[in-house]
């Protein structure tokens, strides 16, 4: 299976993240989703934490609207806020309700430190920096799940987690990843010029991307320990 193309900046940042990228996208939790061996208890624990995660991620994408400098940037950011609140959070509510966990319980899930560390790192990148700092911290989450979804959609050997895999493998979500990739490319060119990859700023953005990738690894690891 070929890896999906989410744009030039993403490819460069992914490369700069080194081994952390594979540790994230091929984590044992992901392989357990692929072959159905992930214990249900771990999956539900992950989903409850992820619901809280998505609340804060929606706030971070809303901050991207605040940090936008063009109508086009605002449109891309607002589309992601909507995808998060209306689709992804709904997926979690649906799966958890079917498993006997009501929505009020989800909202009241005590936040694990690994979860808190990740979302507050991203929000802080946005509070202290500009749209580029924020997008560099947000990108691993979107494109990583895009890559995971595309691979698991093609390679899965069990139907146990097919709903979850289908959401991220589907055309809708893959289109969202391409749109975020384009936003990242155009935001970089607008602020740093076409040669952005050779700007000193780019290295600091790659650091943020790698840090967020490492926080994704910790999040999967947390999922394995309910
Ligand atoms: C820990 C964790 N990391 C990434 C995602 C995936 N995700 C979060 S926000 C977003 C963009 C809007 O769809 C996507 C794809 C997740 N659910 N949980």
From TrEMBL:
CDD domains assigned: TenA_C_ScTHI20-like
Family to which the UniProt record says this protein belongs: Belongs to the TenA family.
Metal-binding listed as a keyword: no
Family annotation (Gene3D superfamilies): Heme oxygenase-like (1.20.910.10)
Function: Catalyzes an amino-pyrimidine hydrolysis reaction at the C5' of the pyrimidine moiety of thiamine compounds, a reaction that is part of a thiamine salvage pathway.
UniProt-listed GO biological process terms: thiamine biosynthetic process; thiamine diphosphate biosynthetic process
EC number from the UniProt entry: 3.5.99.2
Record keywords: Hydrolase, Thiamine biosynthesis
First-tier enzyme category under EC: hydrolase
GO cellular component: cytosol
GO terms for MF: thiaminase activity
Metal-binding keyword on record: no
Pathway stated in the Swiss-Prot or TrEMBL entry: Cofactor biosynthesis; thiamine diphosphate biosynthesis
Domain Thiaminase-2/PQQC: 19-224
Catalytic reaction list: 4-amino-5-aminomethyl-2-methylpyrimidine + H2O = 4-amino-5-hydroxymethyl-2-methylpyrimidine + NH4(+); thiamine + H2O = 5-(2-hydroxyethyl)-4-methylthiazole + 4-amino-5-hydroxymethyl-2-methylpyrimidine + H(+)
Name of the protein this chain belongs to: Aminopyrimidine aminohydrolase
